[in-house]
Amino acid sequence: MKLYSINAGYFKLDGGAMFGVVPKSIWKDLNPADENNMCSWAMRCLLIQDGNRLILVDNGMGNKQSEKFFGFYYLHGNDTLEKSLAQHGFGVDDITDVFLTHLHFDHCGGSIQFNKDKTGYEPAFKNATYWSNQKHWDWAVKPNAREKASFLKENIMPIQESGQLKFTKEGESLLGFEIKEVYGHTEAMMLPMIKYKDTTIAYMADLIPSSGHIPIPYVMGYDMRPLNTINEKEEMLNKAVDNNWLLFFEHDPKVELCSLQKTERGVRMKDVVKMSEL
Questions:
Q1: Fewest CB atoms within 10 A around its CB: which of 69, 145, 220, 266?
Q2: Sign for the pseudo-dihedral over CA of 26, 32, 34, 37
Q3: What are the Cα distances from residue 269, in Å, to 40, 76, 99, 215, 237?
Q4: What's the rounded Cα separation, in Å, for the pair 235 and 1?
């Protein structure tokens, strides 16, 4: 098995929304905001090369939305999913499986693209099986009012219509890794737990989106069930530090992975790690 960090680009979100009840006077040094209180975040995906399989975990925002839509999120930088795959010698047609932690637009938008004449949509990964789970899929296709803006039909329904969609569930290892389901951020978000070399890589998705969110009270305003998030974070962090896991951050603009340590203030980041160094 070989793992690659894949950067699908950078975007901006409101710092207050990202750090919830934590005041700006505390979080401002973790990810400095611009004059509009917007902070830069990565859309970092994970590529797993395992035998004949090439598995992509999440795929960023994609490029098919309107200029107005992208204007809300201030896309910046030169990284794209395609460029990042190419740096490792791969292309979109090489992907055999697309594992979607959840169906918010910044995690699954790259799943679908315009067709050639831009009259409709088609899978961006034509040779891949797309993986979700039944509970989250049902939640996403009939969204609640608060989450509706994050579940875009054009990102979701064409996956099913293509016939390339399959469902997995917690604990299964159909793709060579175990899955942990969490319910604080959204219904049944899936976290891959990947045994790699001498450790476990815990892909945090939006449970702990960045290293700045490791402290227990640092919970995003976007979370549907913040008290669940707190409990899920505490359980995950304690297991991770006790078992020497590495956390993989999808949205941290600088830190790909880190190890953890116990301190008087609770579990905190120990060492910053790069995937290429493992």
A1: 145
A2: negative
A3: 20, 27, 27, 9, 10
A4: 27
Query: What pLDDT, on a 0 to 100 scale, did the predictor assign at position 103?
Result: 98
Rounded average pLDDT over 155-176? 93
Q: With left for phi above 0 and alpha for psi between -120 and 50, is residue 162 left, alpha or beta?
A: alpha
pLDDT confidence of residue 172? 80
Specify whether the CB–CB gap between 12 and 38 falls below 8 A. Answer: yes
SS (H, E, C) the chain: CEEEEEEEEEEEEEHHHHHCCCCHHHHCCCCCCCCCCEEEEEEEEEEEEECCEEEEECCCCCCCCCHHHHHCCCCECCCCHHHHHHHCCCCHHHCCEEECCCCCHHHHHHHEEECCCCCCEEECCCCCEEEECHHHHHHHHCCCCCCHHHCCHHHHHHHHHCCCEEECCCCCCCCCCEEEEECCCCCCEEEEEEEECCEEEEECCCCCCCHHHCCCCCCCCCCCCHHHHHHHHHHHHHHHHHCCCEEECCCCCCCCEEEEEEECCEEEEEEEECHHHC
| Length in residues, the chain | 278
For the chain, give the longest Cα–Cα distance. Answer: 59
Task: Assess whether pLDDT exceeds 90 at residue 206.
Answer: yes
Q: Residue holding tokens 């978000």?
A: 189
Tokens of 89: 């010698």
Cα separation, 43 vs 84, whole angstroms: 12
Please state, in angstroms and as integers, the Cα–Cα distance from residue 173 to each residue in 169, 170, 244, following that order: 9, 9, 21
